[in-house]
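Format notes (please read before filing issues)

Several people have asked whether sequences and structure tokens are stored in separate files. They are not. Every record keeps both together, in the order shown below: the sequence lines, then the token lines. Line labels are part of the format and must not be stripped during preprocessing.
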Amino acid sequence: MEVAVVNNSGEKTGRTVQLRDDVFSITPNDHAIYLDVKQFLANRRQGTHKAKQRNEVAGSTKKLKRQKGTGTARAGSIKSPLFRGGGRVFGPMPRDYSFKLNKKVKQLARKSALSYKAQNDRIMVLEDLVLEAPKTRMIAEIRQNLRPDDKKMLLVLNQPNKNIYLSSRNLQGIKVVTVSELNTYDVLNASTVAFFESSVDALNENFGQ
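Then the structure lines:
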């Protein structure tokens, strides 16, 4: 798959890069995408939810009334779930939501997500950007020149770049990741995925296995 390289103004530079067909032109597997996104969201959950049960609620254990002869049901403790301020029945408890997913399934999901973007013409390759200091205005102008109607854009770098990250972190709808951090959820969540020219070789190497 051949893609033209564009500059910061959105104009073609005359250069092209070759993206692997076995990464960007496969038949997408929707179930693999579902499993990978499900795992990604599950792993982000803290799982620290907690409600007190009747043995954890503060209160007296003295019987509220005599057990027989009242004409009503027995009540053994003020901490009963039937009373206000009592413990909760089957309340949430701390747990780990993460689960294991095979490496090949995750790789298939990422390839499927990238193939969907390629089918919809949502893959771009930008010439490398050199910033000697953080400049938010420059990143905002690049986005405006490339796809002004897109609500979300994912910029993919070859390696971490502190200046590009600092320049984009205050802009709504722009996320910067490296090739090694690329995941199915971020690809699908973005309107356009823009790779810098230097990241293409690393992308083909990492995802072409």
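For reference, the curators noted about this record: The first strand starts at residue 2 and ends at 6. The radius of gyration is 27 Å.
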